[in-house]
Amino acid sequence: MGTKRQFRIWRGDETGGDLQDYSVEVNEGEVVLDVIHRLQNTEAPDLACRWNCKAGKCGSCSMEINGKPRLSCMTRMSTFEEDETVTVTPLRTFPVIRDLVTDVSFNYEKARETPAFAPPAGVAPGEYRMQQVDVERSQEFRKCIECFLCQNVCHVIRDHEENKPAFSGPRFFIRAAELDMHPLDAKPDRKEYAQAEMGLGFCNITKCCTEVCPEHIKITDNGIIPMKERVVDRRYDPLVWLGSKIFRRGQVPQTSVTSGHHSGTATASGEQPVHSHAGGSHDARSETQAQQGVNWHREVPHPTAPAVDANGKLPLTELTLDRAAAPSPFGDDVKFPLPPQHLNFAHPQQDEPKH
Amino acid sequence: MTETRIERHHYDVVVIGAGGAGLRAAIEARLAGKKTAIISKSLFGKAHTVMAEGGAAAAMGNVNSRDNWQVHYRDTMRGGKFLNNFRMAELHAKESPQRIWELETYGALFDRTKDGKISQRNFGGHEYPRLAHVGDRTGLELIRTLQQKIVSLQQEDMQEFGNYEARIKVFAETTITELLLDGDRVAGAFGYYRESGEFILFEAPAVVLATGGVGRSYKVTSNSWEYTGDGHALALRAGATLINMEFLQFHPTGMVWPPSVKGILVTESVRGDGGVLKNSDGKRFMFDYVPDVFRKQYADNEAEADRWYTDPDNNRRPPELLPRDEVARAINSEVKAGRGTPAGGVYLDIASRLPAEEIRRRLPSMYHQFKELADVDITKEPMEVGPTCHYVMGGVEVDPDSGAAAGTVRGLFAAGEVSGGMHGSNRLGGNSLSDLLVFGKRAGGHAASYAEQLPSRPAVPVAAVEAAVETALAPLHRDTGESPYALQQDLQAVMGDLVGIIRRQSELEDAMGRLAELRERVAKVSAAGGRRYNPGWHLALDLRNMLVVSECTAKAALERQESRGGHTREDFPKMEPKWRRVNLVCSLDGDKVHLAHKPLPKMRPELIALFDRAELAKYLTDEELAEFDALAEEASK
């Protein structure tokens, strides 16, 4: 019932090797790992390949299939065309031991460098109390099966051996994030540590790691970005640096520039709350006057400062937003076209009778 | 041969196996100040424990405050059909909660109840919601937590000694092929690095076996390649004994379609959360298979069974939650009666029982697994499931308190699946994860104190090392023998067809003959290629372990003339009280398996008093019942 399929599998060791062609029988419902096992049973008994659970739970059988980092136990043969040659190669980021087996000890070294969970002082075993919503954030990262596909795909270390000493990689960024979000972890500086010691700043959020994660952990969005956003030291982080250039901040403590002024007037005059449009906030009376086109000297709205956090920094909102662009300079609550009563501009002649 | 390079290491305690039991044992030995090595056949953290989905049973009483260790003890004994080593069941029930809470101090994040405690879920055979869980990936959480605890101990050592591996080291992708003895004392362990094929010798006075099970001897199994009975065989060859080897648990619900994932488990939680079993006629057939001993606890109609999910106090449980052996046998009978699915299983339906959103929330990795591996959407269609070889109840006969192996050897300890007695003839779901922790800790602690009190370190005999090297290299030097893969398939065929779920005398005798033939062939196996990461060679070395353990199973299965738990004899379909008093003990006599009868230890009065007389009557002999009555009479005076 099976069909013959063409495979090219990398055979060799650290001294070199090449792709070898195999023609293998493939049956309905099989995955790439089944094919490798069939090869071991037949023409290549010493074909080296790691595997354990064969159910996508242990993360052992990581390899590159047609150039894509995948778990071979979770790559169904039905996803390929019948006449397609399937090329299987070892993970590229780690040194080859033999055939499809690579030396992944880099990851275990980095694991050892990541500070462990710090139990809270004075809480006895059995007395730990946490809410489900609070543990769920860390639980997402604890789904990690350590297949190291994210480490393999990360271009900071893929083909950049020189970055390995300073860079722990996505797997350990989410380990840091997991502990950072752990409701009872007693170590306060996970983010700072990730930035200073784990090379978080090298990451420029291309999301390749998230893409290859077989557990569908949102490594970048839920792990790396929240840490980047909140980390205090921004000097080493090219993205935050870039953000500061784009938003032209970093010179003055902007939080107090206009919002203080406005909240002052608003409370003093007891007027309706101001709203922000076109980067400005202004009172309702000026609006009415503007509509009537009578007051050319009405108060010009001050530009509103960006919504900065307690540290006076702008969140990198273009990255956490649901779209791939900077947020609207008009504010997120503004829909276009603007309703006329919200417009700042009134044509001087608008109310004059037409001739 | 003598010029072969062998890397030598000195340790106080060597733990073979890096699953839940092994890691917990290693943590304990290291905390006791002993220099500890962990030997892992795979990479660190890939152990088969990660496959455990349902949870870890511990009577914490977080969800139902009526739960306590006595109830858990009763459930365990009942599940094991009273063949359990009562002391192990007692220790397990008493100590599980502490072991689970301890994991939280290592950083584990279990699912929570509303008041912030560890949530507990229902599971087959457990009277109250008892399983601490993390979605359906509890085993992964357990392994990761223990793995990270070991890392944290290494970080402490780094601070103190400037070396992460000063007192605890993980030897990943390393296989032990031989235990070395000095007289009757363990002196060390010999093996090879899988990656390089280089040999390695550990000199250590205490060895803890935590190698897991034997499922790879079966065609349809949920077990990974590592489960080749290494620990069982190492123990036998070192002079220790195995008990209960006839008892294998076939998990009732493994995937049967598509073929590539045949054997992979569908967690029991699917049934605990409302999933029902149906045959090809669409009938919910489990109501026809409730044995008399369980009538009191299990519903006999759909209405009551369905009410139980929301009101467990006033209704009996659905029969889908019967112990695993009962469910496996029921499915087997339905399929044999021609009411199975095309792929030879039955339907497990949760799609029609819960809203899709709820299924995805409660069983995320099940949903994920079926979607990705089989392209089946469990929220829309039923699953096709059937029994798969899952767990071996039998194993190294141990002292219940210390985990020290029985037999003629000293300094050998065992914990987890490789040890026997705790689960009797059938293990309850959820009891294995807590078993790993409770007895892992005990074995590690006792191995450490054994090493501590030893007046002199045993010495590794040179001749034994040379013999071990020769045995290990033999398959590579032969080129006339059969392929290890072919031999494994033949062994799996013998075990699957003749020593499977339902057993018969004639088939078992046939199996004994075929295993003897296989023994000849395995002795001549040859492996192509070199020593560097050569899976063919690795399998060739594992085969002899699989073979000797299979012989134990077949022999004990032939001897035990009754049906109980994970051992069903078609020619002896009934449970016999007189057989309950007997443990079948395997030892090695030369290279032949020797089988002996040994009486079961007698339960202490206060423990047997936890049961109803009516229940005991189903298990005990008249003689034992008379003793029980005498006890009861004395107590009432």
UniProtKB/TrEMBL annotation, chain A:
Matches recorded under NCBIfam families: dhsB, PRK12386.1
Positions of region (Disordered): 252-293, 324-355
PANTHER family: SUCCINATE DEHYDROGENASE [UBIQUINONE] IRON-SULFUR SUBUNIT, MITOCHONDRIAL, SUCCINATE DEHYDROGENASE IRON-SULFUR PROTEIN
Cofactor(s) it depends on: [4Fe-4S] cluster; [3Fe-4S] cluster; [2Fe-2S] cluster
Listed pathway(s): Carbohydrate metabolism; tricarboxylic acid cycle
Protein name: Succinate dehydrogenase / fumarate reductase iron-sulfur subunit
GO molecular function terms attached to this record: 2 iron, 2 sulfur cluster binding; 4 iron, 4 sulfur cluster binding; electron transfer activity; metal ion binding; oxidoreductase activity
UniProt-listed InterPro entries: 2Fe-2S_ferredoxin-like_sf, 2Fe-2S_ferredoxin-type, 2Fe2S_fd_BS, 4Fe4S_Fe-S-bd, Beta-grasp_dom_sf, Helical_ferredxn, SDH/FRD_Iron-Sulfur, Succ_DH/fum_Rdtase_Fe-S
Gene Ontology biological process: respiratory electron transport chain; tricarboxylic acid cycle
Domain 2Fe-2S ferredoxin-type: 5-92
Ranges of Polar residues composition bias in the record: 252-270
One Gene Ontology cellular component: plasma membrane
Keywords from the UniProt entry: 2Fe-2S, 4Fe-4S, Iron, Iron-sulfur, Metal-binding, Oxidoreductase
Family (UniProt): Belongs to the succinate dehydrogenase/fumarate reductase iron-sulfur protein family.
Species per Swiss-Prot/TrEMBL record: Micromonospora narathiwatensis
